[in-house]
Amino acid sequence: MTQPDPNRLPVKAVLLIGSTLTIMAGAIISPSLPSMLDHFADVQNAEYLVRLVLTVPALFIALFSPLAGYVVDRFGRRRVLITGLLLYGIVGSSAALLDSIYQILITRIFLGIAVAAIMTTITTLIADYFDGRTRARFMGLQAASIGIGGMVYLTTGGLLAEVAWNAPFVIYLTALILLPLAITSIFEPVVESSGVSHTSIKASRLNDRSDLKRVMPLMVFIYVLMFLVQAFFYMVPTQLPFYMRNLTGASPLQIGIAIASSTFFSALASLVYIRISIGVAHIRLVIISLLLVGVGFYILSISVLYVHILVGLFFSGTGVGLFMPNITLWLSEVAPPTYRGRSLGMLTTSIFLGHFSSLLIIQPFITQFGFSSTFTYTAAFIGLLIVFLIIAYSWNFLKLRDVN
Predict the structure, then answer these.
(1) Which of 357, 283, 354 has its CA nearest to residue 323?
(2) Which structural domains are found in the chain, ordered by start?
(3) What would the pLDDT profile of 85-113 be if each residue is shown by its tens digit?
């Protein structure tokens, strides 16, 4: 049995546009955070609760992504994606009608569940539909589309935040616009073992289970790397708006443009990923990516002007733009096929656990030392991590010298 052509434009459009709804799910409202804080200033612990509006989806994405991975492997990709898009559009946009910080937080919990379903499914479908260099190219394109989408969403969010603090929530209606196209174009991939005897399928699964045990240390290493990078980088949407307002008196639109520039630089880096990754060990690109992020954060720590912040975001955004397709491709290559959904689901967990943990880890440093010093300390920690990875690469821990 042959499957429909995944290279059709409607299929690619769903995969790429759907991808933009995931990573940026929380950051879409980032430009409105200072205005939201002003609106809820009378609420006890408002400064923490407003930041939690941005980060609480990440916690529930992290909690539900492993379950989403299991459901995707067990019951199929298509129905999970369609359900996720429907839930995303409804609960994401409903917050625009609410005037209670606690009710908004409840909608953000369900938004996290929806993102877990969408992101896990789309990443798994890309790994299913494509292979080899085609898969690497499409994952670079996926990361680029996330960056471009983030630029559009954040700039639009900044414009809407100038109108009202809750106006950016209407951007989540994008999922409902995408839903009909997903229903008509997305198909279940053909299982590789189709037409093979039950005994052969069982043997294949046993082999995959054996392979999973063999590569598990490397997979855990990948998950930890993803968690750390996302925890660092999520300082941009959660802390930078307040840093910029204190430093330069930036408006919501200026904040939105600055954060959007980071995603734009990330998109450009992802587009060239496929060109520079050929024959290069994944771990080498990880080290290069972290170096760029560290330089960017150091520049942010010494910034005094708006343009300095843009320069810092250029370096950090470029680093993340190289990191994301590289680490996702690395995991999709080492994960056994019958565990692919669950493996990529755990990667989603790592991403968004990093997002949620960023606030818990970083906020005490912000309170104690201020924004500038916290960015400096983060850059220094990234430098130490780079040193560790270079040593690990030199000693070839976990077969880190494997190339694409």
Answers:
(1) 283
(2) 9-189+207-399 (1.20.1250.20)
(3) 999 999 999 999 999 999 999 999 999 99
